[in-house]
Every structure is written in C-alpha cells, then in structure tokens.
Design goal:
The complex is a heterodimer of chains A (about 425) and B (about 525).
Chain A (H helix, E strand, L loop, with lengths): L11 H7 L6 H5 L14 E8 L4 H4 E2 L4 H6 L11 E2 L5 E2 L7 H5 L3 E8 L7 H10 L11 H8 L10 E4 L14 E3 L2 H7 L6 H14 L4 H18 L18 H14 L6 E7 L13 H20 L6 E6 L20 E7 L6 E2 L21 E2 H11 L28
Parallel strand pairs in A: 1-8, 1-9, 5-11, 5-12, 6-7, 6-8
Antiparallel strand pairs in A: 2-4, 3-4, 5-10, 9-10
Chain B lengths: L1 H13 L16 H12 L7 H8 L1 H10 L6 H8 L8 H21 L13 H23 L3 H13 L9 H13 L7 H9 L2 H6 L14 H8 L12 H10 L9 H10 L3 E3 L8 E3 L9 E3 L2 E3 L5 H12 L2 H15 L6 H14 L3 H10 L1 H4 L11 H11 L3 E2 L4 H8 L17 H4 L2 H15 L6 E2 L8 H8 L5 H10 L4 H10 L7
Antiparallel strand pairs in B: 1-2, 3-4, 5-6
The chains are: A alpha/beta (about 425), B mainly alpha (about 525).
Chain lengths: ~425, ~525
Amino acid sequence: MAISRRVFVKSGGLALVSLGLDPLFLARAAYASTRDGGSGERPILVCIFQRGAVDGLSVVIPHGDAYYYSERPRIAVPRTQVIDLDGHFGLHPALAPLKPLWDNRSLALVPAVGSPDATRSHFDAQDYMESGTPGVKLTSNGWLNRYCEHCREHEATPFRAAAFGPELPRILAGSAPALAIPDLQAFGRTGGRADGRIDNITRAFEELYAGSSTGLISSSAQEAFEAVRMLRQANPTQYTPDNGAAYPQGRFGHTMLQLAQLIKANVGLEIAFADVSGWDTHVNQGAGDGQLANRLREFGTALAAFAQDLGERMRNVVVLTMSEFGRTVRENGSGGTDHGHGTAMLVIGGAVAGGRIAGRWPGLDPQTRYDGRDVPVTTDFRDLFSEILVRHCGALDVNAVFPGFPADRARFPGVMRAV
Amino acid sequence: MRAVILISLGILTAAAPPQPPAGPGGGLVTARDSALHALNRLAYGPRPGQIDSVARTGVMRWIDAQLDASGPRNERLAEREASTPLLHLSTSDLAQRFFAAQQERRARARQGQVALADNQMMAGPDELRARALGGQLQQLAVERAVLSDQQLQEVMVDFWSNHFNVFFGKGADRFLLPDYVEHTIRPRALGKFSDLLIATAQSPAMLFYLDNWQNVRSGGWAGGEADRRIGGQGNRRAHGINENYARELLELHTLGVDGGYTQQDVIAVARIMTGWSITPPKQGGAFMFRPRAHDDGEKVVMGEHYPSGHGMDEGMRLLHWLANEPATMHHVSWQLCQRFVNDVPPDGCVDDAVAAWRRTDGDIREVLRAIFHGPDFWANANVGVKVKTPLEFVASAVRAVGAEPDSTPRLAQVVARLGEPLYLHTAPDGYPDREADWVNSGALLQRMNVAVAIAAGRLPGVDWADRRIGGSADRESSIGVELSAHTKQVIENEARDDEVFALGLALGSPDFQRR
C-alpha cells in the first residue's frame, strides 16, 4: 500500500469486533496463514512488565551468599528448597517450570539490573523504564515505539506492535503503529451485532472514508479497513495449545496464551507487550511458600507454557521480563520488603545465551549496597534492552531508541548469542 | 497587517449588530455558517436548534456572552452537580477515604488469602468507594462539556487542565486533584494568567505531582509528618533541591522550551521554590511555606537578581515576572491559537493574542477576544480543519442528538477508550491538540462504533429518553456539520430508508471528526 502507515492504536481490536467481526476474531486470526509467505522468520520480542517492583532476590536467589540468610530470617527460601543453578545462585522453587529452559540454555538471568535513576516511586520508575529515559519526565513516547519508528527494516503491518490490555501502555506510545488488544473475554461481553447488517455498516463507512479528501483521516481509515479485511479472511476455530502446553488459570496465563495465538497467526507481529501486577510485597511476602511464591508460580508456569506451546517457533522469539526496581535486601518488620534499587530480569528464547548468569553480581555485602540497603544496579536496563534490539531484532541503530545513551557493545550483558 | 486588524476591530465595535470579519476565502457565507463555526470552536458543537438561535442572536454577541461567562450555566447541570457526592467532600474527607482504602488493601495483603494488595478483583468497600469518586471526577468533566451553557468556560477548563496537567494516578493526587480542578483551575479559567500560574504553583496537587514538596535546601528537610504520610515510600527522603517543578514551570507552564533559559536558570528557580510545600493531608493537605526548607542564598534567574533572605516572596516575584515575560506571552498565545484556530497557528493570530496580553497584563478573556475577533479565526483556510479530540468528539455527538450523559461514569469511559482517559495523562505536558496525535486507524474505527451506537440509542452512558430522529435536512442541521456532497451521496445510497443508520453514518463520517 502506498499510503503512509499511521498509528493503529488504542483498543483497535475492540473496534473491529463491534464493527461486526466475530468476538473471537483473534482466535480466527490465529489461523490466518502466510501473511509473511508463511516463513515466520521475523524475530519477535515479547516484553513482560512486572508492575509493583518484584523482589529480584526471590527470583534469582543468591543462596551462596551468607547475607541472604542473615538479612532475611523470615522470608529467605531455605537452601534445601532452592533450585540450584550453579552452586551460588538458584531459582525460587515456584519457578521450577523454568528450570528446563535453563538446562537447555534458552534462559539467561540478569540478577542486578535496573535504572540509574535513584527514585523509589513506582510511578516515576515505571515511567522511566517505559520511556527509556531515566530521569527525564517529558519524553512523550515509549522506547518500544521509538524502536518501531526508527527501525523499519521490516514491512509494517497493523499488527507489528501489540500490547495486551485495554489501553496502550506508555512503552508503546508514540507515532509508530501499535495496537492495544483487550482481553478476549471482554470481547465476548461487548458483542457485535449478529445480524447481516454488519456488512452494510462496514461497507458504508468504507465508502464514506474512501471519498474523503483529507490525507491523514483518509489513509488511517484505509488501513483500518484493510485490517478488518485481513482478519475476516481468517478461519474461526478453537485454539488448542501445541505440545501439551498447559497455561495456568488467571489473567497472565490467558494473556500468554493469546500471545502465542497471535504469533502463530503470522500476521506480522514483531513487538508484543503484556504486564502482570502483584509484586509490591511490603507485608508477609512469604518464603518457599506464601504470597510471592504464588505469584511466581503463576508467572513461571505461564512463561514455561508459552515456550512449550511455541516449540520450534521459539528459535526466533525472545521473552524479556522487567520490573521498575527491586526491593530491600533486609526484610522489614512486617515480613516483607520495601522499595529498593536493582532487581532481576529474565531473558528466554532460542537464540539466548542461556544457562548463565549475565551481568556482574555485586554481592550483598553492606559495603557494596546501594544507599547501604539495596542491591546496586550493575547493568543499566538500557544496555540489556539495547543488546536484545541489536542482536535479536536486528536493529542497526539504537541511539534513537535510547537518546543520550549511545549503545556500546562492550557494556552488553551478553544475554544473546553473538550472531 | 496590524493596521488592517485594528481597523476591522474598530468597525466591529462600532457596528450594530456586529458581524464577523469576512474570511479571505469567503467560506462562511451565511449567518448560520458563522454560528456553526463559532459553536464548533468555542463550544463542544451545537445542540439541536442552536445554530439558528446563535445566528439570530448574532454570532459576535454570542461570542461576547461566552467570554463574559456570567449567564446561567444550565439548570440540569446544577442538579447534576448537586447530586454528585464528590463535590460535597473536602480534600480532608477525600484523604480519609484514600487512606481507608489503602488500609483495606494492606490488611488484605496481611491476611495473605489474596495474592497481593493490587489485586483489583478483591477490592473492599472502601477501595470501591474511592474508585467510584475517581469516576465521578471524570464524569463531571464530560457532563459539563455536554450540558453547560457556558461552553467556552468548559473548553478553557479543559485547556488549562492540560496546560497545567496533573496526573490523577500519582499517589496523593488521587485525593488532591478534585480540589485542583474545582478551586484552582475552574474559577480562573477566564481570568488573569498570573493568578492562574500562582494558584497552580501553590496547589497541593501540583506541588505533589511535580515533587516540589520535596524540593528543599541542601541539607534541609521536607517536613516531618508530611515526609512520612504523603510519599508513602518511607525510608529515604530528598535532602536537597528537586528541579522537577522548576523545569516544567519554565518549559511547559511559562516560557516554553525555546524560552532562552539554561540549566543554571532551572537550578536557580528550583532554589527559589524551595520550601513551597504542603501540610499533611489529614490536616487538610493545604499549601504551606516551610521557611526551614527554604534556600536563603542569593539567586540569579535569566539575569534577574534575587537577593537573599526574602523567603516566599522570592517565589511570588518570580511567578509574577514569568507570567508576563514575552516568551510566556508568545508560548501560551501560540497554544491558544492552536486550540481555537489551526494546528499550525498563523503568525498574525498569535501576534494579535500577544498584543492583547501585553495591553491587559495577561487577561485571558481579552486574549481570547482578540483571537475571536481576528481575521484568522474566520478565514476559510481555518474552518473545519481541527480534528476533534476524543472528549470533543463524544461531547459533540451527544450534544448533536440532544441527549445527555446518564449518572454513571460510563460516558467518561467511552472517552477513555477513544484514547483520552481524563486527568490520566502521565507526563506533565497534558494531552496534545494536533491531528496526528488523535487520528489513527484503531481510534477511527472506535469513533465509527460510538457513532453507530449513539444513533441507535445504545451507547452506554447516554441518556436519550425522548429520542427523535428527523429527516435528512433535519439531520444535517442538528448534528452541526456541513456534510460533503460525497458523504450525503453515500448516506443517500446506503441508508435511504433507515434514519438510525443514516445518523450513525453522519456522526461517524470524516466530516464529523472535524470542527
């Protein structure tokens, strides 16, 4: 199409549905084949934001560090329960489903990553991690959108960038096309009109806008109708995950399932985003069992199911988890942890340099702690994200993605196998 | 150019009844054309019959009445406001509820039966009540946009709410924002810019949003009780200046990004504003100057000397100075012209606005009058060229069909789904007002859906009890757009015998997306 690609944004999915598409249009889309000639070789990046600041020390547990146990008498996971990885680090037992990915070297762990900005405000820190500009509040767009805007190696489709949720998140806000997809269940409740007049409505609007002389409105509408057509060609069918993958109950598992569907649909998805909350464990966070363990179980099970469902397709998919900051090394008076600094992030995928701890581990010695209390940040999150954009997505230049932070391969934590 | 404008203004004030200046393109031929244009710019579009009534009154007379804004606001709206619980609660009341909801969330977490505190599905009664109040704040804005007869005032409240944006989702702003909208912005929307600037600088909502309550002299303190209660982040407090407010004050609120200031000026402004703080929310959450937190040293801002030892007066002097700096006049006038005239404001329009600002020390009413009386406002090239924001689209569609919002927050949720959740723009620059920011394929589809749903009387949140749908002539005059020949033709072809469908197509047409 000769028209310029404008922003396909903000609950576009819901709009398609109410215009008369089957509420399960995504399920149909999941079987729309061969958008890319069926090659399916486009690299895909899936970003998962753990909102609320996950306790990195409970994800990647430094069980070989005596301070871990002395500072956390009530909430440390006993050594016997930790899933050991390398004699010093281990996974939380609730993350056991991820252990096979570590073993087959498709899971890398970055245990002390975060923002150089000192803020301990959820709001500010999430804002910085999504804008990609720590300390700068006025950045209007998100770094994933800037990537889409500046790296046009791939032909864009309305589905190039998608976020699961009712509204487009900050990280995808900007001028490049991005689609917000609310939950499929919500689609069902919204309901389209089931009578045959839907075709008439769609056709009439298409005619209205085809004759509109104004540039941006006209071209955006043409794109919208193209997407409608594209999805209508898909065959409706029930989705069954492959390879016996079992997604956990709950919103996050459901989101990951839909994401797998969309990837298999080959509609041109390159950047996907989803978030999962419930990590702000100030009170009674628990140890091997408890509240945090429950959250981690759902989290790890969903990620493992996603990888299993995609199977071979994972060779070109990277899942990156992130969270705005970590939590205090020492447990607080309520059996929880307060806002800290560095945290742990996970990188999963076929091309990941897995089975290893990436980035420098500063240890838990009070002397090396940030402000004397937190895990310091030894890997700037922008170095981690840059490495994935360059080595996985094939970005030629990420300087526009992280302005004022020139990419330097020497600082890459080494989560991707060098190509 | 200037001479021409002055002459035309002279004619306007002398002639009776006044007529709008003829645009160069001559697009606004009839009195109805001019009335429609004014209703699309100073108001959220026409109500049924309003184009004719404004044309009869005389469009310039109607504009002056809107600027005056002293007439009745609308009885239905008054009833609505009277029955809106949010408006009967003080900031302390709201703070109590906020903290009760917070307690409930923490208690839930402590019990451990729920995964964690932010599990929305498990919210208790206090949390639900707190959330409902947030919905009322958004709904109130939509109700006023649809119902108020003082439309220009509502348009300007929206303008200033974005110019002086505060994000409702940031901590204490959940209970500070209602007071900000009601008592800081609304009473000053058509007043002096300097008053508005000072009021926002002293508003707890802004002081919290842009962190100035934590802006203290090096080694100073932010204030004991406030430290613990407001931030909720515990443990660590800033002991030194915080430039956040100072920077946005210069860049967004006054001078503009090219306003000629340096990083050293930002630091000096931040030092001047040290000590501008708030009392603990449970004691009312009011503005308070904390002398012990104030930096008493000498400062220099853009060559202006601020000798040491003047405490809060330094900030007052700074704000008064900023309010009438040429860069500020230009920056804010430019934004006003963008809102009322064109995404890319004509120079002449901005010049007129600046001249009025200079003449009246920043009387917003007079600045607007200069814009509305200028030739650019009426020029054919600037008629029907602004794309409606989601709020403008929804409010104008509901007004066009003569309906009104029901008493739920659902219509505000429609505005949110179209991309403009009110008071929830996170960055301090507020929602943009340019075509490229609002036109995209997903949003257009959403607007078509909303249009069809309104026409069919099925849009959640719209009360359309005595719905009447007239014929095609009636349709065009009531929805207040000049439909293109093409649009008329498509509607004629596709919906000849179906007035509901025809109305839906008209409201969802490209023509109705513009104002």
